[in-house]
Design brief:
With about 625 residues, the protein is of the alpha+beta class. Helix content is about 40%, strand content about 20%. The strands form 4 sheets. A 9-stranded mixed β-sheet has the order 1-6-5-4-7-3-2-8-9, with helices on one face. The structure holds adenosine-5'-diphosphate.
Length: about 625
Amino acid sequence: MAAQATYEFKAEIKQLLEILVHSLYTEHEIFLRELVSNASDALDKLRIEAADKDTGDDAPLEIRVQTDKDKKTLTVADNGIGMTETELVENIGTIAHSGSASFLKALKEAGGNNADGIIGRFGVGFYSVYMVADSVRILSRSHREGSAPVEWTSDGQGSYAIRELAGDEAAAVPRGTHIEVHLKDEFVTEFTDPEELKRVVHKHSNFIGFPILVNGERANTVPALWREPKFQITKEQYKEFYSFLTYDKEEPMDVLHTSVDAPVQFSSLCFIPQKSKDFMGFDHEDWGLDLYVRRVLIQRQNKNLIPQYLMFVRGVVDTEDLPLNISRETLQDNLLIRKISTTLTKQLLGQLTKMAEDKDKYAKFWREHSRVFKAGYMDFANRETFAGLLRFNSSACDDAEGLVSLEEYISRAKPDQKKIYFAFGPSREALKLNPHLEIFRKKGVEVLYLFEPIDEFVMDALHTHKDFELVPAEVAKPEDLDKLPDVEAAPEEAAAPAPEKDAMTALLVRVKAVLGDAVADVRASSRLTGSPCCLVNPDGHTTSSMDKIMRAMNHDNSVPKKVLELNPTHALVRNLVDLNKADANDAFVEQAARQLFESALLLEGYLPDPHALVGRVQELLTKSSGWYAKSK
Ligand code: ADP
């Protein structure tokens, strides 16, 4: 007999085992889903790797579940790719694998709490078997020629033993993997009952592409739902397939089941989940559609079948037009896959357009998936449809929940208004205080509110929609708006007449002299009503938020040079005009000029050092409180 070696489990496996064994999770049956799914992967791998080699026998690829009540065992066996001793140590001894790793990460993100809630949503992997087992024995023989079979045993308490089999013992082990689960007493009745096991297989593994036999009887039924005629499929079957695919227990938000003959032949079954996943975090590779050729799985999560901005879509594509033995490298840059992707993308966008007719449903979609979806601004081929699917909060909404499409905006536009205006800000409240939007309120012109940096890239890339130009409110030309009638009475201070022109000009010159190179220019504004001043970009088109993004990308911390616009109808500005007229060297005018400028910088998020500003405010408050006290 070959020597037996004993190994300790890696720390994180011990941790995983600890969590699984002690969790209150009640659906212990998912261990079977994990073992069957591993077996199915092993069969897929064998088929792919050994496509043109002789696998040694003609036995059908299948998964066999066998029970033995007396021995208290349940066995899951496959005639798949198998594992060598080294592979067993690497695969079952470490945790670099998909399922378990993302489970642990999700658990970490949840602050270590709620393991029970998270378990069912992940492929927790092989170790979940220890929820029901007090020991496990794996026998495996790799498909590689001349591989000796190996036995792996462990009670899941901290270590495992491995030995190579020889002689008669070895001869009795066929290619593939055989996992013998010795059940804890309390699980013997449940998991040695073939009817119960068939139910579990049907529930979690019905769509596995290989026959699953429970004590010799076929337990899974529908291998390729996407190839069945649509009218024969029930909602329940779609849901079953969806949860098989995603482990998501909720119903999908939407289903797209299509069959296409030209320009390429393919069938696809796609789902939009109710909840978005954190694609930015640990799951950023966990997307793509499963690719089948004539019902045979070729690649899981193929990322060329849909564009990245539709990565929330889950599903399968099956085509007759590819050879079964196509290699992964060829798939990457395959014309046919590109054609499928082009057609499927159009279909998915069409489906979303249909969904958008139901405002509430689409609002749900938008809340969950828009962060990912917005990256579609780069899809120039579908620009028009994409733009039609965009939604924004706007000045016309009652609250932050409201969503407006570009169409709706256009339908409300003023006669002759050929521009769609938008503004970027951290919140509705902040945007309501933005001086640049005052004139829009005064004229009753709607402004779309942008809250995420990507929104600006979207607007920039679209540039126009229908025959409307997309224009940042901040750089709107006042003359475009001036001609519209006022809908809102001007604030009191603006009702007063503007100061005489020369005196105003003198103030502008003085302020420019005070601020010097810090500003590109100082001029009178016609866009302001309630605020005394604002900053605008000298080039007249870059918005301050886009400017900030560009600066961040270029690691540029300098303060941009902007044009300071003063509102001639504002009481403060009128007072300054008077003071300046009386004394061209008045110190208060200088102080006020700096204060106005720095407050405007602060509002735009550019003020590098608030000390001077705060000092000035305190000085002014001290003075004014003195006057106020005296006047009382
Ligand atoms: P995951 O399936 O998420 O990768 P598991 O812990 O379930 O994680 O399995 C770890 C690895 O062990 C698998 O990735 C696979 O390489 C190997 N493995 C598990 N079961 C089998 C099997 N029946 N046949 C061949 N290899 C297997």
